[in-house]
């Protein structure tokens, strides 16, 4: 069975028709539920078998030492790893004293289904125990999008062929044993028994466990309560131990009788509050959840999602699998960002322990551009989290001898946790990526209060960083030397084009914001001289260009480097970073992920159309996509320069990253940036959306495989713009709000309420297909009209980031 | 007391007039004895107090893990650390049951003296025990230069104010407790109890201990025997335990009576041989030593050194302290290299555990150029060690995707042990440094057999490495991208001038050697096509040049980088690497150690005189000398471009590195490269010797502080050339051999036996003094005629490498 046979193809949901024990961990990621605060992998209710047990609370981590073979100044010595907190999902079942364990007995049916419209993970199984009794088990699990601390499970069991003695054990388990790490540097460090018990208690069907992490000193509380419905008399009992709470229900069911258990779970954590405070906080959340009731939670969830989809859906006609994948992507991006509330959005969301649960530039560069137009409050929250980390970023800047703030390359709480500085600290572009996200959010929403109170300080401190990092050379050019751009197969280069263009935008944005908020800027010590310095540095920014080749080198000297020997690099040597040393990757022309091409997307204004075409063709030959952060960007620029079918192929790769497990590491969690990137591929690629100027600009073009793409966007608080694109025309409809000005191709349009505006789309000029490194071409995607699987995965495609 | 008050100033020796317990470890390094195989720090005979106990056997190390915060392909995972082997130096004394411990009682006199002409460390003390008995203790220690496995001590005690009961305990102690590490990354990792006992035995006054290292599985044997002379009846007794052997002598001496103990010690180790074999090997060495006897060993030592000095002395008139320092330097370089015999010469010799006992490029670049002209056999041995490591170097090259051989940046046995690749593996120049040493040795000695049997394979395999590391760009230039040159404040740069010039020489040397030994080259798979490829790559080698500034950038783009803010870098922030992050050092114009300037020394033929002057002035402003591998090179080029007094200052810094503890880390061992560099400063600096062409070239010039410099050189086996330089003229005398052709200034001379040739030296043109980074100027050295101390150490000068 290939990775993607596992799921049916349908537009609004994902259904797994049978259970494959070999790839349990992958399904646990794909079906994970989260609201951005609480995350639950789709571990089976009964706990075992499992691929990778995981329950996460955003911001809960443990410290661990970062070792170095050779010490050096400024290397972070303490790392942060997400930990598996108290597992509240577990409901064990005994049928006539036989544990319900799918590894034993006969499993006749097993189905799991996630519907993107209701946010419920439904499971049903028909199982005959080794002793011969057959039961039907159904369960529904939710992590509430409306009640941040709350998850709930409805669990039902029914004997179908005769009477059975049934015991249900609903549990809270702390310090679950985890499978040992597999040595892949990309997987999380497994932290054994990170929780130290502080408190355990029970009362009726309620129980609570409170723990503290050993080194990071975070207090974590988990509590549960239960409602039992039974067609037969039953008895309940609650017990607690330091690492374990259990509520047991016992009954005897006749054939056709049912036992149903509704379990409410509430989580809370704090770095500051006392044990009674945290304990009471989760008790309150639990009480509220129980008051809402199971049906109430389900209904809230449905309404929340209904509203979300009404304003944010992306429709894809002509390719059902892609339609499914894009909604899957949007759903998980929503889950990752919905309720983070001043916490980070990690690279894997809360779907797995990959990358130690760290947040990278992925968030601001890929995830927030999507959330900006569908869940802008989540963007404000995510950026407010960055704002709260400014003191740490200032301290890091001081340690590095820089002004302003240096945001960490990877972190959970805010401290730099990168143990390899050439691909960590040296990637200073993260500061500009965050600044760009601030700028975009403010422009899209008009949230001047956010800009004034939070955004400007981020812009100012990052601009100060750039001004101190760069310098003017003898000819007056402003240079930024010795930094690492997005492409991690180059490092420590001078004048990385992406970095310099993003820094330029950052410097200008800071000056502009300070101009709008002169008073508040003055409070940050900004005066007009400093603003002028930023504008001058931006104006003098040096952007290298290779006149001979007529392309932009990714950084100084890049186009002089030796070509990677792509012809003699076999498929099994990818991702390259696992088979070749950094020194070799760094000094050759080979690109892990879009770098100059990303610059052409986010700073499209800095390139001519002709440059974009030439640059794109040049870098296509060099880009191996050993990172999941590449295909979507290549899709966007491929579409812009007219390679629409190639864009389509890249879009599919980005969208199917996890459903087809293209990186081979979906088990460790979903690739949020790639999922968000699929949405970007459609909206910025085929929709041609660019949002770096005052008005939104669209330049829609469809590939041959798609008949229609449509999407909605929330703008300036109360506007909802709907864009529908066919091969012949684009139609702009203002679904909510009064009027909006936008640009279609080169034409300025004003779209007003209830008056859709349509404009024709020119027929695309056929172009010769571009070359990629041999064996690294994206799979060709052909148009599909029904639930079949036609695409072929690139052989051996694994992700390297 | 400052560092250098400790020693008297005299031309042929070093004398410490009193004991300073605070700086014991420094004196232990300075007075260390070694023959390149066995090394003994100058720990006091009685073992305590000590600074850093140390007895080393060249090649005996323990493995230890090299940890990384983030894993990557090709990172070495196992490191090697020199270990303190069984201590055979210890002779404890009890006076009326009071241990002779200088921390107690009254020490009236304590003197240690090392004479460079006899190689004996003599000690005498006059001490009154806490109980009031006064004794005179004298001891003499030697590590034999003629009997490689052997050390010996003559120890004498005499009560001077009345009778005393005397016990002497002569010991072998394995797994000595060491002081804990101080956290300085430059100090050795302390390995606790690395030796596992295998065998212990005694017979008469003899005892032996055999151990194995735990992980590296090296077998180490130490044995001792004793002769007692006593004016009074005495009793001897021997005991052994697994980690301890003791021979005790007891007697009662009257006032003026003496007890003398002569201790013979022999060491051996093997990675392959059995316990009986290693045990018997040391027993044989011990027997031979005892047969030679104490006086015999002393006489052999004296003769060996007499011969050495006759052919290798460097005379410095006008500055006694410098004369002393230069002989100190030569003596220790001799000790480090004399009897290595297919083992490495570590950066610290066998004088301390600094840098984990590793061998770096220091050996080939600084130490071997000196040994080539005074102890050429030692050079052949050191290069034969490199030859024996070729299989490891080929394996490393294959791992790195390169042809030929990649020698390790740091190692004991031959495997790469660098845990930070940007300043380790990326410093590929070590391959060319080794090739250059081969070339120099063969040219100086005419040892064609060595070239054919060992040297050529090194040249061929390093040439192959360069050919695969570099590539031709579109204009046909041969580029070497992404490497690190000598200066460790830059990293991973394109076309480092030093590296490219050295690679060019390496490629040519390989082609030339293959031409001389066509048959043997063919056996290595070399054909004329490959030789042509090497020559072509060498001819096309790209050497960047900054036309605007009229200087060579150290590497591509270097002169565009921001200047380090020297003005605002206070003295206490040096060495910079302990106070600033690498990213910051790498991207700015700041130089840790001569890089481009070293290129001008070793490849002087590649620069015009004008370029040398301009380059030197440019890099003087940037070079902070945070490495001890810099002053000597700056001295050489300063002299060449006419800054003779500046050269004198740098010479003094190199020469006094350890006697004045300028780096603050002499405690961890002596800086062999700096000591050798002092000799280079004189010979290549004031002598103006260049040896990269067929004939030796001299261009002698003296600074105002020196009235005469003279040195002898061994050449082509049986020639000894003596060069004497005054301010007015240079005189070339052939002391041994028939005739030699050489170049003085631009003039070719033939010097024949017994016919000294004198040539006038032009009066130097006064030049304006160059600028160095503020606070990093070398101390000005004024002419001295007697034993006074006039120089001032640069404040806070510490070494960073």
UniProtKB/TrEMBL annotation, chains A, B:
Boundaries of every Glycoside hydrolase family 65 central catalytic domain copy: 327-678
Q: What is this protein called?
A: Family 65 glycosyl hydrolase
Binding-site residues for substrate, renumbered to this chain: 361-362, 592-593
Any GO BP annotation: carbohydrate metabolic process
Using the record's annotation, list all stretches that form the Glycoside hydrolase family 65 N-terminal domain: 16-270
Q: Which UniProt keywords apply?
A: Glycosidase, Hydrolase
Q: Where are the annotated coiled coils located?
A: none
Residue positions of the active site: 488 (proton donor)
Example of a GO MF term: glycosyltransferase activity
Query: Does Repressor count among this protein's keywords?
Result: no
Q: Which InterPro entries match?
A: 6-hairpin_glycosidase_sf (IPR008928), 6hp_glycosidase-like_sf (IPR012341), Gal_mutarotase_sf_dom (IPR011013), GH65_N (IPR037018), Glyco_hydro_65_C (IPR005194), Glyco_hydro_65_M (IPR005195), Glyco_hydro_65_N (IPR005196), Malt_Pase/Glycosyl_Hdrlase (IPR017045)
Which protein family is named in the record? Belongs to the glycosyl hydrolase 65 family.
Q: Name one Pfam family in it.
A: Glyco_hydro_65m
């Amino acid at each position: 069975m290939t990775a993607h046979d596992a799921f049916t193809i349908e537009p609004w949901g994902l259904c797994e028709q049978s259970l494959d024990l070999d790839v349990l961990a992958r399904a646990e990621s794909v079906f994970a539920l989260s609201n951005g605060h609480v995350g639950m992998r789709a571990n089976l209710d009964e706990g075992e078998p499992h691929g990778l047990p995981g329950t996460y609370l955003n911001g809960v981590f443990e410290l661990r030492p970062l070792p170095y073979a050779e010490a050096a100044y400024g290397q972070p010595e303490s790392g942060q790893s997400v930990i598996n907190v108290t597992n509240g999902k577990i409901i064990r079942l005994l049928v006539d004293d036989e544990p319900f364990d799918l590894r034993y007995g006969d499993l006749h049916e097993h189905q799991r289904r996630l519907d993107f419209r209701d946010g419920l993970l439904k499971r049903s199984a028909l199982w005959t125990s080794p002793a011969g009794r057959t039961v039907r088990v159904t369960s529904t699990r939710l992590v509430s999008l409306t009640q941040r601390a709350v998850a709930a499970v409805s669990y039902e069991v029914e004997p179908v062929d005769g009477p059975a003695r049934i015991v249900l054990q609903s549990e809270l388990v702390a310090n679950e044993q985890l499978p040992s790490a597999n040595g892949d540097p990309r997987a999380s460090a497994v932290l054994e028994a990170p929780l130290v018990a502080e408190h355990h208690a029970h009362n009726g069907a309620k129980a609570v466990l409170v723990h503290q992490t050993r080194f990071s000193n975070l207090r974590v509380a988990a509590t549960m309560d239960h409602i039992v419905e039974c067609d037969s008399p039953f008895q309940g009992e609650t017990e607690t131990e330091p690492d374990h709470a259990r509520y047991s229900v016992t009954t005897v069911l006749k054939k056709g009788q049912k036992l149903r258990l509704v379990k409410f779970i509430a989580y809370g954590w704090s770095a500051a509050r006392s044990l009674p405070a945290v304990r009471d906080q989760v008790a309150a959340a639990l009480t509220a959840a129980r008051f809402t009731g199971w049906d109430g939670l389900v209904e809230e969830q449905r309404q929340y999602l209904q509203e979300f989809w009404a304003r944010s859906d992306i429709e894809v006609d002509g390719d059902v699998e892609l339609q499914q994948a894009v909604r899957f992507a949007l759903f998980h991006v929503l889950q990752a960002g919905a309720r983070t509330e001043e916490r980070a959005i990690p690279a894997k969301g809360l779907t797995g322990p990959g990358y130690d649960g760290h947040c990278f530039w992925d968030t601001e560069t890929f995830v927030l551009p999507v959330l900006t137009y569908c869940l802008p409050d989540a963007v404000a929250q995510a950026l407010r989290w960055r704002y709260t980390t400014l003191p740490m970023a200032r301290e890091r800047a001081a340690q590095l001898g820089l002004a302003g703030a240096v945001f960490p390359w990877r972190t959970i709480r805010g401290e730099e946790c990168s143990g390899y500085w050439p691909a960590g600290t040296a990637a200073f572009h993260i500061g500009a990526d965050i600044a760009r996200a601030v700028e975009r959010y403010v422009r899209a929403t008009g949230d001047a209060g956010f800009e004034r109170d939070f955004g400007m300080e981020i812009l100012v401190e990052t601009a100060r960083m750039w001004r101190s990092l760069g310098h003017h050379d003898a000819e007056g050019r402003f240079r930024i030397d010795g930094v690492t751009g997005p492409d991690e197969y180059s490092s420590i280069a001078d004048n990385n084009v992406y970095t310099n263009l993003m820094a330029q935008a950052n410097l200008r944005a800071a000056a502009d914001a300070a101009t709008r908020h002169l008073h508040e800027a003055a409070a940050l010590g900004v005066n007009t001289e400093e603003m002028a310095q930023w504008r001058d540095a931006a104006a003098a920014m040096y952007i290298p260009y290779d006149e001979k080749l007529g392309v932009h080198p990714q950084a100084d000297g890049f186009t002089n480097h030796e070509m990677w020997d792509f012809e003699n690099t076999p498929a099994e040597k990818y991702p390259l970073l696992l088979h070749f040393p950094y020194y070799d990757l760094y000094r050759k022309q080979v690109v892990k992920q879009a770098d100059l091409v990303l610059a052409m997307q986010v700073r499209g204004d800095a390139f001519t159309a002709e440059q974009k075409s030439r640059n794109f063709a040049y870098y296509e030959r060099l880009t191996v996509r050993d990172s999941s952060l590449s295909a979507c960007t290549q899709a966007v620029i491929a579409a812009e320069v007219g390679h629409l079918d190639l864009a389509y192929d890249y879009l599919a790769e980005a969208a199917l990253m996890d459903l087809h497990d293209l990186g081979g590491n979906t088990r460790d969690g979903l690739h949020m940036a790639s999922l968000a990137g699929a949405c970007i591929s459609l909206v910025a690629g085929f929709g041609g959306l660019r949002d770096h100027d005052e008005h939104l600009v669209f330049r829609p073009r469809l590939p041959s495989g798609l008949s229609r793409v449509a999407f909605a966007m929330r703008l300036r608080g109360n506007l909802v713009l709907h864009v529908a694109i066919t091969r012949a025309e684009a139609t702009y409809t203002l679904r909510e709000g009064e009027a909006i000005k936008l640009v279609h191709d080169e034409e300025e349009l004003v779209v007003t309420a209830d008056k859709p505006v349509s404009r024709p789309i020119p027929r695309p000029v056929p172009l010769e297909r571009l070359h990629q490194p041999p064996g690294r071409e994206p799979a060709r995607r052909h148009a599909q009209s029904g639930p079949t699987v036609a695409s072929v995965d690139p052989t051996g495609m694994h992700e390297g980031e």
